[in-house]
Structures are given as C-alpha cells and as structure tokens.
Amino acid sequence: MDNEQIIEEFLENLAIFSARETENCIICQLPVKVLKQIGRCVYAYPCGCRLWQGKIPEAWKKPPSPMAGEREDEKTMYQSRLFMEG
Ligand SMILES: [Zn+2]
Q: pLDDT tens across 14-71, in order?
C-alpha cells in the first residue's frame, strides 16, 4: 500500500468537494444534500459522515440547487431595492 498516494488522493477529493465540483460524500460516496456544522466538525447529510474539523466552505452555504434558487433570490432582492429607493 502506498500511503502517500492515498493521502494525496484524499486531499484532492477534499478540495474538489469543498469547491462543490462534486456533491458525492468523500467518505461514503453518497450524494450530499447539505453540510452541517456541529461543534467544531462538519458533517454531511443525509449520509451523516463526519467530514472534517473546521468550517463549511462558501460553496456549500448556498441552497441545494444554486442555479434556480440563487438567481430568483437575486432578482427579488434587486427589485425590492429598487422599490425602496423609489
Ligand atoms: Zn457519507
């Protein structure tokens, strides 16, 4: 077994996952819907794996379907801002 290679692969997967280029859990490979911060650790749901100690990456703070959800939010915010400025 080549431990260095395993670690390297794991770190690479971690980087890809953090950037949300994949939504498959780095531990069990099941699709992840949401990350949760519990204490100092970050857990994947629904699978429940503990991923790492630290924080939830920016890419994972967005709603599950960034394409549809986010655009709608931006539009609504923009419109309400226009409305407020009057
Ligand atoms: Zn998992």
A: 999 999 999 999 999 999 999 999 999 999 999 999 999 999 999 999 766 555 545 5
Contact indicator for 39, 46 with CB cutoff of 8 Å:
no
Burial label for 52, CB within 10 Å (0-12, 13-18, 19+), is: middle
- Report how far ligand 1's centroid is from the alpha carbon of 49 (Å): 4
| CA–centroid distance, residue 79 to ligand 1 (Å) | 39
Q: How far apart are CA 40 and CA 16, in angstroms?
A: 21
